[in-house]
């Protein structure tokens, strides 16, 4: 803090002569001195208190002789007036140094007209307080004067928007008020006290009260980023003093997203955080990767909501969120040591503000659609392709004569609505505050419509009470209920969208007239062919067999629904027995109760996909986790040393309970009969399980800084996990981080004027992960599960055996994470830049164990793999908001370099996911990215027989008999044959670069937002094709781009439906880079003058195009949507695309 | 302490090892687990021991949809398999996993009463059966007779074949006295290995070692035991009715009543699978197959397509009965009113397999069950016809041609063929031919050709390389993890 105040002397009027007689005065003399020096001398010599902010004083040297003046005020004015300053008496014997009135020769004083906007500087010394005030300034001013009424407004820098909820506190006391919803405040303050105006995200301002007045305060958000308070786990820190790599997302950034999920908020907004929607279907999950994929198994970050670990964040509506912090580096995450290896996402929900009372309502309504789904071959193209590839069982000319055909992708897509409503009531006094909120979200699927619908309802009650000055208690509670329906996805074996791609175009959706022979014969054989609601039979393919079937019929026959009720929340008490020591005890639960209910009608799609008896399946699951945390924070300042010490413990028990069953023989194929009470008992089946696991943790942290310049943060956490072998349950996870705020160094201030802030920081931390360890997986124990063998009469005998080879050395996965970075604010804080380099190695990955086959048992899990992720993250923002036309542009990008650096040397590679039949597409291997794509490498297309002959002769390859138009397969291992041994790396699903960018513009009431996000350098494996179903349809580019004769193309193969050299090769690998404009939004805030008549404090309407424009070269449906499985990343089995949305929204506050 | 008890982990549904193997019921369940693994032909993906032994022979082609369909099987058919072949690895593991479960019984069950002695003997016989598979397919293999821990992985080298055979003989010799006759087992227990089965396996082990006299002696014990006979009708042997019948010494039991549908089939957990999915795999490919109206051979996925040479061998031998129950030509299919629409489909040479046929009657399509997934067809591991032919061979080699002809005659007469009167090499050729015709698709041919030294001649055109393909490669996993040696030229 640059402002100074010296101890006051006896508070009586003085004259200079008196003082001079008692002091040996060293007069200013002839030498030049800086203004600050002069002021200090005046203070000492004349025993007056002078209030000023050194930083704001002009840096000039002056010749000045104080002894020439009779009175202090006269002397000060003489000194200051030439510099455009003025001295104002604010208290007997105390002067504030303020800017001189611009056009008023007479000092305004405390009674100056508040309506004159330009007078405000007349009476006020406005000071930015970068650190929120350490409490040493002005505190010696006597508190003997009368209280006066101070009222006014608090607005943002442009003066447009009131800032309800901003704190107005009397400095050094715990008294104050909050800015009301209309932006005004009023309170009584003794003269001479200082008022501090503060709000998260804005610079605090301090105002000295010199008399009753009306203030029009503008809080400056200019170095908002640095003054933000960021939640760091068991505490909070000012961003400017943070030594780790922490990204924050604020409520306003995600207020208008049209996703149901918070994860979307992180996408493109935080460098280094990759968000991968598993699907575009309503309510589908997302996978979040902080700084790359760090494991062969689950690499999801840890979610902490209001301090309590949560199993997931799908139950939160974006409108409930105050802020999201992502602890990216190892040191920041280390406070959650045992489970922080994949990063930590900390979510803080909104609460009521003291002194406020408001109602917020927001709503969105939108239409979702998919424009131009992938084009497939039409009837003629399909027939030609199968003809050219000489595929068996292909349609004859008679089969296609006069057939208009079906574009199955067009058939399955529809326009679907999305809507969201949120209502929050909040408020509070200085003793208590509350927030009661509720949201409704409803989204239909663009495939499946109401059969793929997601509805969610949430209720939240957050309250805080100050029971005693030393005791706060409160709660954060949320209840949510969702209902999700969905069609089958992400499988090349019979999923709806996959089948829409593979189904032949000849088969109609429904038969309107007489059935064709093959359908008639299926019907005649008493097969239950499906019919639509009008009674028409659904089309049955005569060409594509197996599990591939009419997707519209599948949608029609889909009857499944998952309902979940969830309670997440905690109660807490915070004690402050002595100043600086805060004890917190918090008990939280995360309880979810879910039922998945489905029933299958009888149907017959083909001899391989049919259901001859209607059946019911129910799956009841519940999760119950409790967590009890006790921790103490002690903050102490001595001299310029600031120290915060944390110590705590946490105990957690996670329970899981499942009861599921199925039964067959529904009395009637209707919803209301789809319960096992109404089916014959003798075919009921039941299964169930209950498990518990525990985690016990102790943790401590020291945060130290010297003079806001030298920052140090040391953390250690020790965790015990019950799932590990008893002798190996405990792990210790340390971290150290340090920072240097160079801009607070005197030499820097004097030399680098354009830079307002510069901090260098470095961190190292070790974190753990147990997310891939299951209960008892280290142990060799007797099991009878699934073991039965029929005797010669067909009666089952139960078998029992010792399962698995014991691995008593099983331990935590452990990440070792280094981060070096800097934060800069420049050009009056208009430019903010953060750059980080990180290098994270996750060691001892819990990988499938590899026992020799002769051991006779599996070794399910061993610690046997390392993955390194490294890269650079850059976050750059420019904001220009000191005019009426405000604009802001920001961007972030991160490079990702992912590589497996160690694997059990006895294992060449781990097998990942299979594709089609029998082909493994992804592997985990040293020197390659996690679960890279592997297959044949090709080098063009054979143009003619001569080229083939030459190729075989040159390479000496035998046993390989390609035809012209086939891909040229490379003999990678040089063994002169083409076999699986030639499989090699053909692609990686991991982006090399991820980025996001946004532009915000506002002018008067209008605002405009463009937000884009993208990635590049990742590959997609087009995995929906099936070599074992050669008559399946394909994207039209297979036809259009195909080789049709010598010289036609060297990039795409001739019509070919079954070659592994085409379908298990790099021909199926495509560049998955994309840029997607996530939001294009135009908003209008209604003028206050209009609103005030209706007691509305603010109202904004907007239209938004969400996910509307995508730039990609990927020829499939959607480059973004992926897969649910960790080892299936980047494989397109027929994804449910992310729909584009046209949204209309409204926010109103009362 | 308090923290320790808080971290105590309950492992649901599991028992510590030292709490088991105490009671008769424990011993029975532990032995059931041994039998259960015999059925795990799909446990490690598609890796049936029966097909792994069949595809490298001249009986059939892999088939399926194309060269990329189940590449493990395709490579076995084409002699392009390497040490990473998934089917080879699966079969190897199937043997050793069965052995490991037998070891648990043998080492942990105390032989305190007749039942437990019998169960230990069953386990020893099954262990021996699996070592015989291992030694005949891979040569020198590690002998594992106790539980292997992490630290044993690299201390378990391959053992010379002779020692493996010694272990086999020891196990069987110890087991035979404690095993009951087949007739002494109750109807439900007929799946258990009997004294006769153990003697037949011992005879086979001795035969493979060319210990002709002792081999013949074991077969003679089986033949004289009166426990077994040939089914009068060859077709009945592989029918549902023939399962655990008079001709059956040892078979793997599957059932069709679980019932499976496309939703509940345990694709990811073949261990839990109770039906024989390989029968579906071997059914005529549905894409091209039109069943003859009177036939019950229904469509499948088209693997294991017979070669013309096999069909022609039956024709040349005038062997109609066994041919009709083993292989069908497309001509016959069409004559019966069925059809095959794609004569050029992958690996198809004009014939369909009917021994382990995808017969409607052996699966279950009722009550929601899906026919494709519910074949209850058992694998016949040891049957009496094989015992008689092995006996014939052993006697022939031991110099007793009369006895050799006598045993051969039984098999030929049942097939509706005449007695063989030849002697010398011609008699041996007759035994060779008889084994081909009688035992096609049962997994004997490849091993037979190798041990007769005829593999190069018979399989050379199919890709068989001498000094390599006499044995399968040791799975790469075991070579790497355990540091054991690889077979020659792999």
Describe the fold and architecture:
- The complex is a heterodimer of chains A (1150) and B (490).
- By secondary structure, chain A is mainly beta.
- In chain A, the strands form 17 sheets. Chain A has a 22-stranded antiparallel β-barrel. In chain A, strands 7-13-12-9-10 form a five-stranded antiparallel sheet, with no helix packed on it.
- The longest helix of chain A has 12 residues, at 35-46.
- Chain A is elongated, with a radius of gyration of 35 Å.
- In chain B, the strands form four sheets. A two-stranded antiparallel ribbon of chain B has the order 2-5.
- In chain B, α5 (86-108) packs antiparallel against α6 (114-138).
- Chains A and B meet through β34, β36, β37, β41 and β42 of A and β1, α2, α4, α5 and α20 of B.
CATH superfamily of one domain in chain A: TonB-dependent receptor, plug domain
CATH topology of one domain in chain A: Ferric Hydroxamate Uptake Protein, Chain A, domain 1
Q: Which stretches of chain A are poorly predicted, pLDDT < 50 over at least 5 residues?
A: 1-29, 103-144
Secondary-structure element string of chain B: HEHHEHHHHHHHEHEEHHEHEEEHHHHHH
Helix content of chain A: 10-25%
């Amino acid at each position: 803090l640059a402002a100074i105040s010296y101890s006051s002397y006896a508070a009586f009027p003085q004259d200079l002569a008196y003082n001079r007689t008692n002091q040996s005065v060293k007069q200013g003399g002839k030498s030049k001195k800086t203004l600050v020096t002069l002021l200090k001398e005046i203070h000492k010599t004349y025993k007056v208190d002078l209030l000023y902010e050194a930083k704001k004083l002009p840096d000039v040297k002056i010749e000045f002789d104080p002894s020439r003046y009779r009175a202090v005020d006269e002397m000060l004015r003489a000194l200051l007036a030439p510099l455009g300053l003025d001295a104002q008496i604010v208290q007997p014997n105390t002067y504030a140094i303020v800017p001189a009135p611009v056009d008023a020769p007479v000092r305004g004083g405390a009674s100056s007209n508040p309506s004159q906007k330009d007078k405000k500087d007349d009476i006020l010394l406005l000071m930015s307080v970068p650190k929120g005030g350490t409490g040493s300034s002005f505190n010696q001013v006597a508190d003997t004067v009368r209280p006066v009424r101070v009222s006014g407004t608090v607005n943002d820098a442009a003066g447009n928007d009131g800032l309800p909820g901003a704190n107005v506190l009397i400095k050094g006391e715990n008294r104050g008020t909050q800015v009301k919803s209309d932006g005004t405040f009023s309170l009584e303050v003794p003269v001479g006290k200082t008022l501090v105006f503060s709000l998260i995200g804005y610079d605090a301002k301090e105002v000295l009260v010199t008399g009753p007045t009306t203030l029009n305060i503008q809080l400056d958000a200019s170095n908002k980023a640095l003054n933000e308070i960021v939640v760091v786990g068991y505490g909070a820190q000012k961003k400017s003093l943070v030594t780790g790599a922490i990204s924050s997302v604020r409520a306003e950034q995600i207020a208008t997203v049209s996703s149901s999920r918070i994860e979307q908020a992180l996408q493109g907004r935080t460098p280094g955080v990759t968000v991968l929607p598993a699907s575009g279907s309503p309510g589908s999950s997302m996978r979040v990767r902080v700084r790359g994929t760090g494991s062969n198994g689950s690499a999801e970050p840890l979610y902490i909501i209001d301090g309590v670990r949560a199993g997931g964040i799908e139950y939160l509506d974006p409108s409930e969120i105050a802020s999201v912090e992502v602890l990216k580096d190892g040191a920041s995450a280390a406070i959650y040591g045992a489970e922080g290896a994949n990063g930590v996402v900390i979510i803080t929900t909104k609460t009521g503000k003291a002194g406020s009372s408001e109602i917020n309502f927001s709503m969105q309504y939108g239409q979702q659609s998919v424009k131009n789904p992938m084009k497939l071959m039409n009837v003629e193209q399909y027939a030609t392709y199968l003809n050219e590839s000489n595929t068996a069982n292909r349609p004859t000319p008679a089969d296609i004569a006069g057939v208009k055909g079906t574009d199955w992708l067009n058939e399955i897509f529809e326009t679907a609505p999305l809507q969201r409503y949120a209502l929050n009531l909040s408020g509070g006094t200085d003793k208590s505050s509350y927030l009661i909120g509720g949201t409704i979200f409803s989204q239909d699927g663009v495939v499946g419509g109401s059969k793929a619908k997601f509805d969610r309802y949430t209720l939240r009650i957050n309250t805080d009470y100050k029971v005693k000055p030393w005791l706060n208690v409160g709660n954060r509670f949320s209840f949510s209920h969702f209902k999700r329906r969905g069609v089958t996805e992400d499988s090349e074996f019979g999923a709806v969208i996959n089948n829409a791609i593979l189904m032949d175009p000849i088969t109609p959706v429904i038969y309107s007239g007489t059935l064709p022979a093959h359908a008639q014969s299926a019907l005649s054989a008493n097969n239950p062919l499906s019919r639509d609601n009008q009674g028409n039979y659904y089309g049955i393919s005569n060409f594509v067999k197996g599990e591939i079937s009419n997707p519209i019929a599948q949608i029609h026959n889909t009857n499944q629904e998952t309902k979940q009720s969830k309670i997440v929340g905690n109660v807490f008490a915070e004690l402050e027995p002595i100043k600086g020591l805060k004890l917190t005890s918090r008990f939280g639960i995360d309880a979810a109760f879910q039922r998945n209910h489905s029933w299958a009608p009888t149907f017959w799609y083909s001899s391989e996909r049919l259901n001859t008896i209607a059946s019911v399946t129910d799956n009841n699951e519940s999760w119950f986790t409790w967590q009890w945390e006790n921790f103490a924070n002690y903050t102490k300042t001595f001299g310029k040393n600031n120290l915060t010490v944390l110590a705590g413990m946490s105990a957690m028990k996670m329970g899981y309970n499942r009861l599921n069953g199925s039964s067959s023989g529904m009395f009637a194929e209707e919803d209301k009969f789809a319960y096992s009470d109404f089916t014959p008992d003798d075919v009921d089946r039941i299964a169930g399980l209950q498990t518990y696991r525990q985690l016990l943790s102790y943790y401590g942290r020291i945060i130290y800084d010297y003079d806001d310049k030298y920052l140090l943060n040391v953390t250690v956490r020790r965790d015990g996990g019950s799932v590990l072998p008893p002798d190996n349950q405990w792990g210790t996870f340390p971290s150290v981080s340090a920072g240097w705020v160079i801009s607070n160094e005197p030499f820097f201030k004097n030399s680098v004027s354009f830079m307002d802030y510069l901090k260098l920081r470095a961190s190292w931390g070790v974190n753990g992960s147990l997310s891939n360890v299951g209960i008892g997986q280290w142990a060799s124990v007797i099991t009878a599960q699934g073991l039965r063998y029929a005797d010669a009469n067909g009666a089952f005998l139960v078998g029992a055996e010792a399962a698995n080879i014991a691995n008593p050395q099983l331990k935590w996965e452990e990440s070792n994470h280094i981060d070096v970075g800097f934060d800069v604010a420049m050009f009056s804080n208009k430019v903010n830049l953060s750059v980080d380099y990180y290098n994270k190695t996750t060691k001892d990955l819990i990988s499938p164990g590899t026992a020799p086959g002769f051991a006779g048992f599996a070794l399910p899990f061993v610690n046997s793999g390392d993955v390194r992720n490294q890269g650079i993250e850059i976050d750059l923002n420019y904001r220009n908001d000191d005019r009426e036309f405000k604009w802001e542009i920001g961007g972030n990008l991160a490079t990702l370099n992912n590589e497996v650096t160690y694997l059990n040397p006895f294992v060449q590679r781990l097998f990942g996911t299979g594709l089609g039949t029998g082909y493994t597409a992804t592997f985990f291997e040293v020197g390659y990215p996690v679960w890279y794509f592997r297959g044949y490498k090709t080098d063009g297309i054979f143009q003619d027989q001569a080229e083939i002959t030459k190729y075989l002769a040159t390479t000496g390859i035998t046993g390989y008999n390609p035809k012209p138009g086939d891909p040229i397969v490379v003999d990678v291992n040089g063994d002169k044959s083409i076999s699986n041994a030639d499989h090699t790396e053909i692609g990686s699903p991991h982006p090399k670069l991820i980025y996001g960018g946004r532009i915000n513009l506002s002018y008067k009431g209008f605002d405009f937002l463009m937000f884009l996000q993208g990635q590049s350098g990742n590959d997609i494996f087009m995995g929906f094709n099936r070599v074992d179903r050669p008559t399946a349809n394909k994207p039209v580019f297979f036809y259009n781009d195909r080789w049709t004769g010598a010289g036609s193309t060297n990039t795409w193969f001739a019509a070919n439906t079954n070659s592994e050299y085409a379908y298990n090769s790099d021909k199926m690998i495509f560049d998955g880079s994309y840029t997607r404009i996530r939001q294009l939004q135009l908003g209008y805030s209604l003028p206050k003058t209009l609103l005030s008549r209706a007691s509305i404090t603010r109202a904004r309407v907007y239209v938004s195009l969400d996910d509307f424009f995508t730039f990609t070269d990927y020829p499939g449906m959607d480059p973004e949507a992926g897969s649910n499985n960790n080892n299936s990343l980047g494989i397109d089995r027929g994804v449910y695309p992310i729909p584009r949305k046209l949204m209309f929204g409204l926010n109103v506050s009362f | 302490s308090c923290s320790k008890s808080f971290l105590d982990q309950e492992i649901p549904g599991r028992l510590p090892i030292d709490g088991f193997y105490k009671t008769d019921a424990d011993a029975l369940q532990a032995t059931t687990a041994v039998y259960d693994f015999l059925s795990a032909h799909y446990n490690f993906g598609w890796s049936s021991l029966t097909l792994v032994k069949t595809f490298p022979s001249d009986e059939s082609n892999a088939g399926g949809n194309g060269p990329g369909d189940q590449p493990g099987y395709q490579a076995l058919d084409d002699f392009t398999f390497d040490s990473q072949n998934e089917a080879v690895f699966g079969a190897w593991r199937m043997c050793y996993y069965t052995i490991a479960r037998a070891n648990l019984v043998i080492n942990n069950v105390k032989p305190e009463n007749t039942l437990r002695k019998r169960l230990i003997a069953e386990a020893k016989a099954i262990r021996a059966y699996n070592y015989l598979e291992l030694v005949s397919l891979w040569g020198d293999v590690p002998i594992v007779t106790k539980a292997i821990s992490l630290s044993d992985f690299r201390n378990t080298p391959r053992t010379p074949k002779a020692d493996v055979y010694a272990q086999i003989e020891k196990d069987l010799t110890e087991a035979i006295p404690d095993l009951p006759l087949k007739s002494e087992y109750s109807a439900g227990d007929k799946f258990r290995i009997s004294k006769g089965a153990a003697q037949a396996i011992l005879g086979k082990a001795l035969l493979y070692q060319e210990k002709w006299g002792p081999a013949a002696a074991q077969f003679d014990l089986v033949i004289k035991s009166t426990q077994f006979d040939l089914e009068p009708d060859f077709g009945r042997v592989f029918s549902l009715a023939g399962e655990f019948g008079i001709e059956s010494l040892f078979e793997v039991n599957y059932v069709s009543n679980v019932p499976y549908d496309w939703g509940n089939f345990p694709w990811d957990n073949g261990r839990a699978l109770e039906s024989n999915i390989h029968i579906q795999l071997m059914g005529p490919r549905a894409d091209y197959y039109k069943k003859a109206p009177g036939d019950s051979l229904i469509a499948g996925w088209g693997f294991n397509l017979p070669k013309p040479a096999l069909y022609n061998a039956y024709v040349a031998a005038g062997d109609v009965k066994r041919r009709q129950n083993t292989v069908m030509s497309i001509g016959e299919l069409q004559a019966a009113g069925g059809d095959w629409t794609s004569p050029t489909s992958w690996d198809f040479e004009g014939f369909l397999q009917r021994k382990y046929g995808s017969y409607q009657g052996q699966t279950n399509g009722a009550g929601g069950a899906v026919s494709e997934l519910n074949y209850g067809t058992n694998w016949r591991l040891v049957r009496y016809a094989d015992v008689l032919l092995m006996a014939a061979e052993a006697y022939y080699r031991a110099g007793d041609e009369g006895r050799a002809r006598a045993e051969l005659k039984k098999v030929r007469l049942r097939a509706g063929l005449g007695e063989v009167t030849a002697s010398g090499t011609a008699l041996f050729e007759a035994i060779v031919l008889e084994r081909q015709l009688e035992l096609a698709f049962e997994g004997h041919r490849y091993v037979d050709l190798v041990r007769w030294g005829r593999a190069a001649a018979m399989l050379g055109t199919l890709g068989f390389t001498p000094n390599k393909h006499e044995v399968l490669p040791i799975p790469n996993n075991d070579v790497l993890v355990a540091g054991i040696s690889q077979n020659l030229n792999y």
